[in-house]
């Protein structure tokens, strides 16, 4: 059962800035009830005030903090749409990557995706379905030098989503990954994009309509797929 966005409860991670904040604003404009999670207290509080969303400041590499944050922003209520956007990217040669960096990158990107999904799964099943949206990237499709940990986390999300799509289909739960499809201006890309990409990037709010569309439509042919946020957003603008 797909509910109008104005009747949905939506949880967004990495919501303090960049794409996560843009997604939160887009859902707030549609009247959705928001739960917002990030480690950046100042940024998260600002987005929370702007959108009216419930907030939880949490380090998503910590399993207990992840579970507690979800409980705090939902109050135990069921979630219609989960958008796991939080990630760590610290480019460095493989020989220089510490175990702590590797572990934290996997835990924020993949472990938190697993734990948050477990936390919303039963509620989605009882409400007749839901949408699980995992933000991926080219690093979830290809390998890149100096991105060992980040690529591992994003590739893991791709596999997790495919399995969840198979297990959730009968209960009406859609699971997909979303790549930006266009270079976008975020604090992460400010630090890591080369000049040629910065010349063509777009603001993240240009990609937010894709997430609204997935949550609102939950098309069966999107289940288990990797979707392009720029393409979906452009289609939305022209219809």
Produce the secondary structure layout.
Layout: E1 9-13, H1 18-29, E2 33-38, H2 41-51, E3 54-57, H3 63-74, E4 81-84, H4 99-126, E5 130-135, H5 148-168, E6 173-179, H6 187-192, H7 195-198, H8 208-217, E7 226-228, H9 229-238
Parallel strand pairs: 1-2, 1-4, 2-3, 4-5, 5-6, 6-7
Helix pairs in contact: 1-2, 1-8, 3-4, 4-5, 8-9
Mean pLDDT over the full residue set: 93
Sheet with the most strands, sense and barrel status: 7 strands, parallel
Q: Which stretches are poorly predicted, pLDDT < 50 over at least 5 residues?
A: none
Estimated structural class: alpha/beta
SSE topology string = EHEHEHEHEHEHHHEH
Strand order of the largest sheet: 3-2-1-4-5-6-7
End-to-end distance, in Å? 24 Å
Our estimate of the beta-strand percent is 5-15%
Query: What's the total helix number?
Result: 9
Shape: globular
Percent of residues in helices comes to: 40-55%
